[in-house]
Amino acid sequence: MKFKKLFATFVPIQSSILLVCISLIIYLPSLSFFFVGDDFANLTFHPTDIILVRSGHNHFFPLSWLILTFFKYFFGTNAFFYHALIVTIFIINVLLVKRISAFFLKEEKLQFLTAVLFASFFANYEIVFWISTIFLNTSLLFYLAGFYFFATFLNAPVWNKQKARLFLLFSSFSLLAILAQEYGISLVLLCLVYMWHRNVRWNVKGLLQLFSIPVGTFLLISITKLLIVTISLTPSAITPLRATKSFFTFFSYSLYPNPYAWELLYQMRKLYLPFIGVILVLGVLFFIGVLKYKNKKQLAPAFLLLVGNCFMLSVTSVPQMRYFYYLAFPSALMWSLFLKDCKYRLVLIAVTIFLIVPQFFFIQERMGEWGRASNISRHIVQGLTKENGCQKVKRDVFPPWIGDDRYKAYIIAHPHTLMVLFHHTYCQQ
Questions:
Q1: CA torsion angle for 400, 404, 406, 408 (degrees, to 10)?
Q2: pLDDT tens readout for residues 350-407
Q3: How far is the C-alpha of 23 from the C-alpha of 91, rounded, in Å?
Q4: Buried b vs exposed e over 316-354: b needs ≥16 C-beta within 10 Å?
Q5: Predicted confidence (pLDDT) per residue in 3-58, tens digit
Q6: How high is the pLDDT of residue 173?
Q7: CA distances to 120, 247, 292, 427 from 309, in Å
Q8: How far apart are the first and last CA of the chain?
Q9: What three-state secondary structure class fits 241?
Q10: Are 363 and 125 in contact (CB under 8 A)?
Q11: Looking at residue 122, what DSSP letter applies?
């Protein structure tokens, strides 16, 4: 009874069940998928990768490696359990979004809308269908949980044991978010935006005390990568022009998350000047709308968070679908805040039609492609089993190319690691 009462306080039962059902309707078929692309490399890593920064590898996420090691030890190469883990974490994240949106929105229906927009965000297909994104899922899980404890800590009236416990939980989850993936440091930005939203005043010393653990951990990892392993801080070579293009890509797709609309504009890329003109006009209209919005102070937190995360991603990586996951929450929150004072059902229906429905169909299309790529990978491994038996797999033995070029990135990103996985799966049992 105590657990049920606690859960009902955290997330209302009815809305939480509905959110779980919506998430399962969209993503449950992924439980039947096999491994694809980088999965083969991520399942053949060396145990030392859990605690060491790999030479030539720009990311450091020991917590995610530890989770993969645990699952590999108990479940081997049974893809079902990995996908079940991903779907479970994703659903928890949806529920967390519903809960923490209450710090910005009082209306239950808008909190629910925020969670639905997050669950149906177009880029989630890569996050859920691909087990290699475990580091992003776990990082965002601790990111959202850490913010929940931070906001609760900030709203506590006086310092006592309970408030001290909340601060300890925030610090612990912020540490876990960074150890799962370095982009977890963006939790600090979310906390600062919320402090500004609540008009909380802190001096420099107070901020250092608040964020000493996440900032200290991030700096330690960065210094280690630079001095000990001598690799760059970012996974991609970034130039000012490239970063600018990446920023506008991240920002535009998150500002209006309708991939079909942006794909249509992308088809106009040969008409370069008209394409740039459309982007500029949309940007100007949006900023005018923000300035004239009567509750712009309430809209600003989500907008600042979206801009900050877009900047972080644009100066460290190219626009890959998996990284849009960090933009799903601010994008959903911004739309809900924008609709906060809307009293017209027609507008809410329009939002559903032009935001949620297109993203749902986009994810379903990608699910079909991902399922076909998954089947091709499964057939390759099964074919190698029949053809080669359990003879020693050599480095120069690569599986024959099967399928359309469009699936190349999803099927065999690392051919050798596919062979190694085949060897470990069928020859060392």
A1: -10
A2: 767 778 888 888 888 888 878 877 877 777 776 665 655 554 444 333 444 443 444 4
A3: 7
A4: bbbbebbbbbbbbbbbbbbbbbbbeeeeeeeeeeebeee
A5: 455 544 555 678 888 999 999 999 999 898 888 767 776 776 655 555 555 544 56
A6: 95
A7: 19, 9, 24, 45
A8: 45
A9: helix
A10: yes
A11: T
Structure tokens, 162: 């309970």
In order of 5, 211, 247, 342, the CA distances from 127 in angstroms are 32, 28, 20, 32
Domain-by-domain residue ranges, the chain? 13-235+355-370
The per-residue DSSP string of 262-309 comes to: HHHHHTTTTSHHHHHHHHHHHHHHHHHHHHH-TTHHHHHHHHHHHHHH
Tokens of 161: 């044991």
- How many residues are there in the chain? 429
Identity at 128, one-letter amino acid code: V
Contact 175, 215 (CB under 8 A): no
Structure tokens at 112: 């629910």
Q: Closest by alpha carbon to 11, among 84, 79, 125, 92?
A: 92
Q: Residues 152, 393: contact at Cβ < 8 Å?
A: no
